[in-house]
Amino acid sequence: MTPGEPFHTLKAMEVHFTPELQAKLEADEYVQQLVESYVDHDAWFRREVAEGLAQLERGEFLTHEEVGARLQKKFQP
Fold it and tell me: Could you give the 3-state DSSP secondary structure of residue 47?
């Protein structure tokens, strides 16, 4: 999915759990929390990637050599 591409809606999903796991879950609440967490993380990740790409386009990045030099300077006694 690329920025600006519409989101697709999941209409239905069937999940099968073992009886043992089913007994441990209040599936409705747990699954809702899990999906909400995933969606929030996915949105955050997409924003971070978009910002990183924008920084690259603006020329705001370090070369491999510059990163190495900074690390070497930081860890020198």
Answer: helix
| CA 26 to chain centroid | 26
Q: How many CB atoms lie within 10 A of CB 31?
A: 13
Q: What is the pTM of this model?
A: 0.54
Contacts of 70 (CB under 8 A, 6+ apart): 62
CB 38 within 8 A of CB 45: no
Place of tokens 């609440």: 29
Instruction: Give per-residue pLDDT as tens, 4-25.
Output: 666 777 788 888 889 888 877 7
